[in-house]
Design a protein that fits this description.
- The protein is of the alpha+beta class.
- It folds into 3 domains: about 5-60 and about 165-200, Ribosomal Protein S8, Chain: A, domain 1, CATH 3.30.1370; about 75-130, Orthogonal Bundle (Arc Repressor Mutant, subunit A), CATH 1.10.10.10; about 225-485, BirA Bifunctional Protein, domain 2 (2-Layer Sandwich), CATH 3.30.930.
- Helices cover about 35% and strands about 20% of the residues.
- It has 18 helices and 15 strands.
- The protein has helices spanning about 5-15, 25-30, 35-45, 65-70, 75-80, 90-100, 105-110, 135-140, 150-155, 225-235, 250-255, 285-300, 315, 325-340, 380-395, 435-440, 460-465, 480-485; strands at about 20, 50-60, 90, 115-120, 120-125, 165-175, 240, 250, 320, 345-355, 365-375, 400-405, 410-420, 425-435, 450-455.
- Strands 7-10-11-15-14-13-12 form a 7-stranded mixed β-sheet, with helices on both faces. Strands 1-6-2 form a 3-stranded antiparallel β-sheet, with helices on both faces.
- Strand 4 (about 115-120) and strand 5 (about 120-125) form a beta hairpin.
- Helix 4 crosses helix 8 and helix 5 crosses helix 7 (about 105-110).
- The longest helix is centred in the middle third of the chain and has 15 residues, at about 225-235.
- The mean pLDDT is about 90.
- The structure holds phenylalanine.
- Phenylalanine binds near residues 326, 409, 431 and 452.
Length: about 500
């Protein structure tokens, strides 16, 4: 039956009848598929040939398991039938005989029903005939028949879900609409060379000026990139230059040693750091600077006592995936120190890697935002001041600073902000003044200080876009539709 046939029967029926009370009944009487009738009604409603009321109802249908029992019989009856009429069968043989249709619980039911008994792992029949009440009931449900109360109770007492409810949609009181006609006209959509002469006879389909246009195809920025742009703008507006972060692979030397991070530091453990197999070591390091770094680790200098251990070049040579962008900062500061001193403001936003267990807030790779200022006579007050300006540009004004520890900064401060929604102070960054043990071996003048801070890009992005699982933001599980739909990013005022 094609749709046109259903249309003409339906419109024809309405010509002589007030209404069609129920689309189900109409379908059954005319031997139409109800789904087809529903779709025809929907299209006629669209053209206002008819009017109708929505009708929604629920029925009970069988789950896959329920369907299986309805055709093959209940597991307990299958089991019973596999037990010989005379004598007994061992449990092992029974399992083998039944194969896939064996279910542990079937023995329980067969015993409870007093159909079989089990003695010393041998199963034998206690009766010769059993009824498959479950199968009968399931078949009834399948045919859409009503069950009696005790039948419903019987099914519900099974622990497994053999049935589920399904919602259906149909229509009631289907009547003539404002544009009713006993026959559906084929509406024209366009005026063509072929039909222009008979335009007066034609009926045109109305324009739907409320229809949404097709979204234009275009590239889309990942939320992280949008937020990164905002951070970049803030840094640039504050006069910061971007550092070159285009090296994911870094030597342990620049990632740790140059930062006065001792070689036994837990962060250097393979649990937290990804080491490279090939090339496993760096090719070159600035030798005289390496010598000064070694000395400051082993015995100190510049007013420090050092760590008092044997510094090993092999450890420094090991290549890693950089664990923070501070590795880049250390390279840049070393470059500054090579030239006559001039103050600098630098920033970077790029990827870092940590060998962490992945969960809803952690990935093994994420992005760090880092800023630093290198100038003569900087103090902790300058750091606090810069952080206040920086975060206020993000729209965050309630800040608190908490003493913290980093091997390369002293003092160090955790940056806390008041979360209005949660009513608590949350950590939003880490900061500090780089230690003389880091700066002096580079050759920076004694009165030069470096203030610096870092935060992740993911955390603010998740907050801005209301994403609570980091795997929805980054990685192979990201929903591309979400990337297309997410709005532009605006942070701050
Ligand atoms: N490198 C630090 C981190 O990975 C952040 C930081 C940067 C701290 C600069 C102090 C100064 O958490």
């Amino acid at each position: 039956v094609d749709d046109d046939q259903v249309v003409s029967v339906l419109l024809g029926f309405l010509q002589y009848n007030e209404e069609i009370p129920d689309s189900r009944q109409f379908s059954a009487e005319h031997n139409f598929d109800h789904n087809q009738v529903v779709s025809v009604i929907q299209s006629l409603l669209g053209f206002r040939y008819i009017e109708a009321q929505d009708l929604v109802w629920e029925t009970c249908v069988l789950t896959d398991e329920g369907k299986r029992y309805a055709t093959q019989g209940s597991p307990e009856v299958q089991l019973f039938l596999a037990v010989p009429e005379e004598g007994s069968i061992s449990l092992v043989d029974l399992k083998e005989k039944l194969g896939d249709s064996f279910q542990n619980f079937a023995i329980g039911y067969a015993k409870k029903n007093k159909w079989v008994e089990v003695q010393a792992n041998q199963v034998s029949r206690k009766v010769q005939h059993v009824e498959d009440k479950l199968k009968e009931l399931l078949l009834k449900i399948q045919e859409g028949k009503e069950l009696h109360e005790d039948g419903i109770k019987f099914i519900n007492e099974r622990k497994k879900n053999l049935t589920e409810s399904r919602n259906w949609k149909g229509y009631s009181s289907i009547k003539k609409g404002p544009r009713y006609a006993p026959k559906r006209k084929n509406l024209s959509t366009t005026l063509t060379r072929g039909n222009v002469e008979i335009w007066e006879e034609l009926e045109f389909k109305e324009y739907n000026i409320n229809a949404k246009g097709v979204p234009p195809e275009s590239g889309h920025l990942q939320p992280l990139l949008k937020v990164r742009k905002q951070f970049k703008d803030i840094f640039v507006q504050m006069g910061f230059e971007e550092m070159p972060t285009n090296n994911y692979v870094e030597s342990s030397f620049w990632n740790f040693d140059a930062l006065f991070q001792p070689q036994q530091h837990p962060a250097r453990d393979s649990h937290d750091t990804f080491f490279l197999k090939a090339p496993s070591t760096t090719r070159t390091l600035p030798e005289d600077y390496v010598e000064r770094v070694k000395r400051v680790h082993e015995s100190g200098g510049y007013g420090s006592r050092g760590y008092n251990y044997d510094w090993k070049r092999e450890e420094a040579n090991k290549n890693v995936l950089r664990t923070h962008t501070t590795a880049v900062s250390s390279r840049m500061l070393y470059e500054i120190a090579k030239k006559p001193f001039a103050p600098k403001k630098y920033f970077s936003i790029d990827r870092v890697f940590r060998n962490e267990a992945v969960d809803r807030t952690h990935l093994a790779e994420f992005h760090q935002i880092e800023g630093l200022i290198c100038d003569r006579g900087l103090t902790l007050g300058d750091l606090i001041g810069v952080l206040k300006v920086f975060y206020s540009r993000l729209g965050i004004s309630k800040l608190r600073f908490k003493p913290a520890y980093n091997p390369y900064t002293e003092p160090s401060m955790e940056i806390m902000s008041y979360h209005e929604g949660l009513g608590v102070w949350v950590e939003i960054g880490n900061s500090g003044m780089f230690r003389p043990e880091m700066l002096r071996p580079m050759g920076l003048p004694e009165d030069v200080q470096v203030i610096a801070w870092g935060l992740s890009l993911e955390r603010p992005t998740m907050i801005l876009y209301g994403i609570d699982n980091i795997r929805d933001l980054f990685g192979h599980k990201v929903d591309l539709d979400l990337i297309k739909r997410n709005p532009i990013c605006r942070i701050g005022f």
